[in-house]
Specification:
This protein is of the alpha+beta class. The chain has one domain. The protein contains four helices and seven strands; from the N terminus they run E-E-H-H-E-E-E-E-H-E-H. A three-stranded antiparallel sheet has the order 2-4-3. Helix 1 crosses helix 2. It starts with a strand and ends with a helix.
């Protein structure tokens, strides 16, 4: 059996230390969602990532994501691929201490289906 984590939208992952790296597709999708040009989006909401190899979302002064509003993501329908993939396509040791995603046992075929569905959200967003 495999484990699939069902996000409870607690917002914890939007508050911890780190950065959200952006792909070109993320930038285009987010800019469109916000009604901005890509240039405007980049100027307003991004910074150079720590590796100096691309762009990442800016943080608020408290370290939380610039798009976090209370416990909700202001760009949920267009959120970055990195955000969409957590905690099923990537995670770090001990993430369960903060993340409230509910682990559900699924067979491998179901896990693959859920991954495709998640990827489809990204493509249709």
């Amino acid at each position: 059996m495999a484990v699939w984590y069902e996000c409870q939208r607690c917002g914890a992952c939007c508050r911890w230390e780190g950065e959200v790296r952006l792909t070109d597709a993320d930038i285009a999708r987010l800019a469109g969602f916000l009604g901005l040009s890509e240039k405007e989006f980049i100027e307003r909401y991004t910074r150079i990532d720590v590796r100096r190899a691309g762009l990442a979302l800016k943080d608020k002064e408290d370290g939380s994501c610039v798009f976090l509003r209370g416990r909700e993501c202001a760009v949920q329908p267009a959120k970055p691929e990195q955000c969409l993939g957590f905690p099923n396509r990537w995670r770090f040791p001990g993430f369960e201490k903060w993340c409230r995603a509910r682990p559900v046992e699924v067979d491998e075929a179901e896990r693959r289906r859920l991954c495709r569905e998640e990827a489809g959200e990204l493509l249709s967003g």
